[in-house]
Design a protein that fits this description.
alpha/beta; globular; 40% helix
């Protein structure tokens, strides 16, 4: 029976993924560890999915941080305004960056169990990319990693849907699981037969803007909710995921790091590199002792995928 099973859950948030990557990089440096060695499963949505994929392929958090610093300005060019009838950004710089980062590597080459949420727009159904950590998972491991990254990060209005995985119209997993904490828990329980009592989760956000909800929203219509709606849905979804994780596992088994920041300071497509990195340095400094106590003692057994083989026991 599994006595300990640790999950790393990484939120979506566009260029704010730089914060998440920097936090993980500082934790590695401060504690002298290789962070992925302490997790049995990694789940990430959108930008969190990109980080999860990088970690699975053996990239260190500082290498992933370098990816954001070097490619962020091209992926999210400054000065563009939101367009009414077309995605704000071209997907070409994003695809070029992902190809340069991941090359021809396939999802099946991951050294960690990965779960990456996306959404099937055509079938109006969830779409979750998974490594072959169960015998019935026979398709996704053949997909190039850069395509998985492109699909999970196809944020509506920012990037066009991605259609080059089995001709499915895939968009950002953030529409249903921007905080994938529950996705990771459900995968551990339903696919890996891990008891809830064994699970601990490190849920890492991309900073949380402190917003004042205007009173006119109480009775507002479409005009009033046109901007606040998406933010409220994403925020409520995230709070709900963490709250339910607390109920399922116990508050002492869930560590959530998603610091509050002033409204408007950061955005999905707004690059304020020095401020974001400074925030990550501050938060990781204070979180390191908790990580050391809660997660560092556990070393995850080696993962051998089913890609035609038998997975090594994690009991």
């Amino acid at each position: 029976m599994t006595e300990r099973f640790q999950i790393l859950a990484l939120d979506g948030g566009g260029i704010k993924g730089m914060f998440s990557a920097a936090v993980l990089a500082h934790l590695e440096d401060d504690l002298g560890i290789r962070l992925v060695n302490h997790f049995d499963l990694i789940t990430g949505t959108s930008t969190g999915g990109i980080i999860a994929l990088g970690l699975g392929l053996g990239m260190r958090p500082r290498e992933i941080l370098k990816f954001y610093v070097e490619h962020g300005p091209a992926i999210f060019p400054a000065g563009l305004s939101r367009r009414v009838f077309k995605s704000k950004f071209s997907a070409e710089p994003l695809e070029k960056a992902l190809k340069s980062c991941f090359g021809d590597q396939l999802l099946g080459e991951s050294g960690k169990r990965l779960v990456v949420p996306a959404y099937n727009l055509g079938e109006d159904h969830v779409y979750v990319f998974k490594t072959a950590h169960h015998p019935r998972l026979t398709r996704d491991y053949k997909v190039p990693v850069w395509k998985v990254a492109r699909a999970t990060s196809a944020a509506p209005t920012y990037f066009p849907a991605y259609t080059s995985v089995d001709n499915v119209r895939i968009i950002d997993g953030g529409v249903w699981a921007n905080n994938p904490t529950l996705v990771g828990i459900a995968e551990a329980v339903s696919m890996l037969d891990v008891p809830l009592s064994a699970i601990s989760v490190f849920s890492l956000g991309t900073t949380d803007e402190v917003k004042l909800r205007a009173e006119h929203l109480d009775h507002g219509g479409m005009w009033h909710w046109r901007q606040a709606g998406v933010d409220v849905v994403l925020r409520g979804q995230s709070i709900g995921a963490v709250t339910m994780a607390h109920h399922l596992l116990g508050a002492d088994k869930v560590a959530r790091l998603d610091p509050a920041v002033p409204d408007g300071l950061f955005a999905l497509d707004k690059l304020l590199e020095s401020a974001l990195l400074g925030k990550a340095a501050h938060e990781s400094r204070h979180f390191a002792p908790k990580f050391s106590e809660m997660f560092a003692p556990h070393i995850a057994p080696e993962f051998t995928p089913y890609n035609g083989q038998k997975e090594a026991s994690h009991a």
